[in-house]
Design goal:
27% of the residues lie in helices and 18% in strands. With 169 residues, the protein is of the alpha/beta class.
Length: 169
């Protein structure tokens, strides 16, 4: 970018101007474009909706942690919401024939729908429900798996909210 300079010391001058050239400005432009692409800017369309599908473990062991599940949803979901974007929640049970417990846009109503919920199923795999939740949320949506078991990673890009702990009989 800088042309070769003579090695002579010029007395009294501390700064030298960068010689402007077309390659210099093109390289600056490319650097700015690369920084902009790496920042991944997003423009939300008007009427955009953030879809969040929550799969709740409906095994009988979850009954002991219903209150913790409600508190966890109240604390963990709001930071995931994007500002100025409408949110759409879907709460479903983890069993293959699990019913939809809530569908709407109010977080408080979502949490309240767990108050009367009775988990009574035996231990089961939740992959089918997580697959259905992924299709409801879409590619850009969020899928949460609310369970009382310690799970490292859930399938289909779901985030795990584990509320369980060992209890004495």
């Amino acid at each position: 970018l800088l042309e070769t300079l003579d090695k002579e010391s010029v007395g009294g001058k501390r700064f030298e101007r960068i010689r402007q050239s077309l390659p210099l400005w093109l390289q600056i432009l490319v650097a700015l474009l690369l920084a902009w692409v790496l920042a991944a800017p997003r423009w939300e369309r008007s009427g955009a909706v953030q879809r969040i599908a929550i799969v709740v473990d409906c095994s009988a062991s979850m009954a002991a942690f219903r209150d913790e599940a409600m508190i966890s949803l109240q604390q963990e979901v709001p930071p995931l919401l994007r500002p100025r974007i409408a949110s759409e929640f879907t709460l479903v049970e983890s069993h293959r024939e699990g019913e939809t417990l809530y569908h709407g846009s109010n977080l408080d109503e979502l949490v309240a729908s767990l108050a009367n919920w009775e988990p009574r199923r035996s231990a089961h795999q939740a992959e089918a429900a997580l697959r259905a939740a992924r299709s409801v949320a879409g590619e850009g949506g969020l899928v949460l798996f609310l369970t009382d078991h310690a799970i490292e990673e859930a399938p289909f890009g779901a985030q795990v909210l584990s509320v369980g702990r060992p209890l004495e009989n």
